[in-house]
Amino acid sequence: MTEYLGLSMLLFTIGAAGVLVRRNAIVVFMCVELMLNAANLALVSFSRRHGELDGQLAAFFVMVVAAAEVVVGLAIIVSIYRTRRSTSVDDASLLKA
Amino acid sequence: MNEIPAPVLEWDLIAPLMVLGAVAVVGVLLEAFVPRGPRFVVQASVAIGGVVAALGTTIWTATRTDVLDGDVLARGQVAAEGALSVDGPSLFTWGLLLVLALLSMLLFAERRLGGGLSAFTGRAADAPGSSGEAEATRHRLEHTEVFPLALFALLGMMLFAASTDLLMMFVALEVLSLPLYVLCGLARRRRLLSQEAALKYFLLGAFSSAFFLYGVALVYGYAGGFGLAEVADAVASRTQERPLLLAGVALLAVGLLFKVGAVPFHSWTPDVYQGAPTPVTAFMAAGTKAAAVVALARVLLVAFGGAEWDWQPAFWAVAALTMLVGAVGSIAQGDVKRMLAYSSIAHAGFILVGVVGATGGDGITSVSSALFYLTAYGVATIGAFAVVMLVRDASGESTDLDTWTGLGRRAPWLAGAFALFMLSFAGIPLTAGFIGKWGVFSAAWAGGLWPLVVLGVLVSAVAAFFYVRVVLTMFFDEPRPDGPLLAVPGAMTTVVVTVAAVATVALGVMPGPVLDLAQQAGAFVR
Amino acid sequence: MGEYAPILVLGAIAAGFAIFSVAIAPLTGPRRYNRAKLDRYESGIQPTPVPEGGGRIPVKYFFTAMMFIVFDIEIVFLYPFAVAFDALSWFAVLAVLLFLVNITVAYAYEWRRGGMAWD
User: Fold this and answer.
1) Option in C69, C76, C77 nearest A71 (CB)
2) I need a labelling partner for B497 at 20 to 30 A (CA). Which of A20, B19, C26, C50 fits?
3) End-to-end CA separation in angstroms for chain A
4) Helices marked H in B261-365
5) What chain B residue is nearest to A8 in terms of C-alpha separation?
6) Residue range B188-207: average pLDDT?
7) pLDDT per position as a tens digit, A25-52
8) In angstroms, rounded to a whole number, what is the distance separating the alpha carbons of residues B175 and B160?
9) CB pairs below 8 Å between A and C: how many?
10) Which residues on B lie below 8 Å from A35 (Cβ)?
11) What residues contact residue B238 under an 8 Å CB cut-off, 6+ apart?
């Protein structure tokens, strides 16, 4: 039980750190997905601890939401890539005060 | 085999959501089957009609909710097996969101300003500056998907404000956000900025919703349920594993404060507000903030009210910082849309002062004061962005603040309306903003938060100085020879600016009816 | 452990079938070469000794994959229904039908606006 939670927190931290340090929009996005899946692991672990199914049910919803997010996110990233030939988040810097 | 009982849905209470969802789905079908010629007009009419129908249904629903007499005044009930709470604050927010969305839809449908084309790109798949884009413009293509997308975002906002279950809240958060990410990237002019805004909003939004979700998971681990009422019971009764609860609250707060646009989760606001198509900015600035503030207040007051000593100091700091950064930041801006974005950050701070203020008492409560503030802020914001749409030059909207110098001489009515919205943002008496600020400050004062109130008044004074300076340069400086052209306002935008201006004055001079509505909304029902 | 035996047996049969099919084809099949054998096969990618474009895959595949993900993931909502549908009331049937109608609406949009067109 504790092990799964520890793993989940580790995954979440790796994901969050990846979002902060990586520069490629697609990699940043994959790190966000890692965070969502870490949350899924935590949800099913807690679900088992509480002896009920609500947490597992929530994991289903998270998966569907994550899939929708993938599609929207990749569409935006691809449209940027076609313009700039780059998916680096540092290149997207026209909006400055 | 055991029978699993069917869930009980209170159809009369969730009817506004059903109407709006159905219209949005019909919008997708229209997109597929209506020929290109009449599609824009059909889509716009259906979207506007759908919002009006949902508004009517909301009023009908509001007349059917019962008043509960407990310790505090409350009305409404929990619906849909504990997923939604159709109570006073929810219904008020629904009505507010629908009115704001109606005004935004009129801006979405405006085609007079861009030479007969809407503010959205003709074919989003074409790279900016490519031959395909020129061809799309030549064939007068328009993305009419914006209407169903906006309706889905509106549905998400309404669900977000009313959900009383953390899982429902997460789904609503995404239903709200995903269409907005797409809408942000669809501007017809300055498409690079628009796409960049979409990317930034998407990456940061997805990041914050991942925090929100992990917070949900931790709170579920602590409480053993997703319902806010279950969480509240656990907070009241369980004393072990407090760190789990506190970490969960902190992560949930990150996700919610991001949507509210509070410091330190505000950095996306200026970029996204500047880059997004102006009708979308207006919709997003007014609507998302309203939905997120109500959701934040519901989570904090309903679920974590029993642990308020743990989270309140952090929120005092967030509110104070948000006011300061927003007000100081808006002074340094040279772009109208960025300036309005920083102003919206400052307003988020003022609203937070009200939300973390008093929770009871027989005066104006924190929830009611926040609801009224959101109304005043929402109409003025949509009006201000509508004015931004009208001040144009050859390349589209002229948002550089320098070019607005002397606008009052050339277009007194337009500049007058903008000045009115500025004064309302500043909280000058006889405008809606004054009543709103008075409400949140008195709620915070009643809660004993006098340092925050003093800081808020000081920050208001700083901000007012700036807003008044903008008004003065518009009216008392000579117009520049290379100043912007003023588009002949289309009927839609004129209606929006007029309605927003009239509402701003009316709410300032005669706040009674709306203030009564906000107060009758009462407390959250759990 | 005993209840997992059928799965292991099934896995062994599947692996055996795959190995058998791959191994038997070169041994028994006729060897007659013609131009069609060198033509592109299903994937649409030209069989060249050095991959074209540095081995990058055309974006069309990702587009199709994304569509697949969206429609495929929705199945998770049908799965619990399928497992327990005899214990569920008519309400659940109607709810699932409504869900499928919504998916079909998205599908119709995709089809009519050319999302399924390959070229």
Assistant:
1) C69
2) B19
3) 49
4) 268-275, 278-298, 308-331, 336-355
5) B214
6) 92
7) 889 999 999 999 999 999 999 999 999 8
8) 9
9) 24
10) 207, 210-211, 213-214
11) B222, B223
Given CB atoms, is C114 within the 8 Å cutoff of chain B? Answer: no
Chains in touch with B (3+ beta-carbon pairs under 8 Å) read A, C
Instruction: Using an 8 Å CB-CB cutoff, list chain A residues near C59.
Output: 78
- Residue A97's pLDDT is 46
> Which residue would you say has higher pLDDT here, C112 or A87?
C112
Verify whether the Cβ–Cβ distance A49 to B220 is below 8 Å. no
pLDDT at B362: 43
Q: Which residue has the tokens 């931004």?
A: B388
B178/B70: higher pLDDT: B178
Largest CA distance in chain A: 53
Prior bond to B479 cis, omega within 30?
no
With beta carbons less than 8 A apart as the criterion, state whether B447 and B358 touch: yes
The mean per-residue pLDDT over the stretch C20-41 comes to 79
Sheet containing B485-486: order of strands: B396-397, B391-393, B485-486
Q: Which pair of structure tokens corresponds to residue B259?
A: 């949507």
Which residue in this structure is represented by tokens 């013609």? C34
pLDDT bracket for residue C44 (50, 70, 90)? low
Which residue in the set B124, B185, B217 is minimally distant from A42, CB to CB? B217
A73 contacts in chain B (CB < 8 Å): 181, 202-203, 206
For residue range C57-73, list pLDDT tens digits in order.
666 777 788 788 878 88
B141-155 pLDDT, tens digit per residue, is 888 899 999 999 999
CB of A74 within 8 Å of a chain B CB? The answer is no
Residue of B nearest to A48 (CA): B221
CB B318 within 8 A of CB B356: no
Between CA C37 and CA A57 the distance in angstroms is: 49
The stretch B48-70 carries a mean pLDDT of 88
Which one, of B367, B222, B394, lies nearest residue B298 by Cα? B367
Res B360: pLDDT:
47
Question: Which residues lie below 8 Å from residue B276, measured CB to CB, with a gap of 6+?
Answer: B183, B184, B187, B194, B197, B198, B201, B284
Whether pLDDT at C24 is above 60? yes
Gap between the Cα atoms of B384 and B419, Å rounded: 9
Residue type, B28: V
A neighbours by CB contacts (3+ pairs under 8 Å): B, C
Chains that touch C (3 or more CB pairs under 8 A): A, B
Interface pTM, i.e. ipTM: 0.94
> What span, in angstroms and rounded, lies between the C-alpha atoms of A19 and A71?
18
Residue recorded with tokens 């919709």: B283
Cβ of A67 under 8 Å from any chain B Cβ? no
Q: Roughly how many angstroms between the first and final C-alpha of chain B, as a whole number? A: 34
A55 to each of A48, A49, A59, B172, how far by Cα in Å? 8, 10, 6, 18
Residue where the block lists tokens 């079909």: C104
Q: How many CB atoms lie within 10 A of CB B304?
A: 23
Q: Give B226 to chain C, closest Cα distance, Å.
A: 19
Task: Read off the amino acid at residue B358.
Answer: A
Test A67 with C73 for CB contact under 8 angstroms.
yes
Number of Cβ within 10 Å of residue C91's Cβ equals 14
User: Residue A5: CA atoms inside 13 Å, Cβ hemisphere, count?
Assistant: 13
Among the residue ranges B184-193, B359-368, C2-11, C92-101, the one predicted with the least confidence is B359-368
Cα–Cα distance between B152 and B24 in angstroms, integer? 6
- For residue A64, the chain C residues in CB contact (below 8 A) are 73-74, 76-77
Q: What is the model's pTM?
A: 0.91
Q: CA dist A37 to A61, B307, C60, C80, Å? A: 12, 29, 27, 20
A-interface mutation test, from C70, C72, C83, most A Cβ less than 10 A away: C70
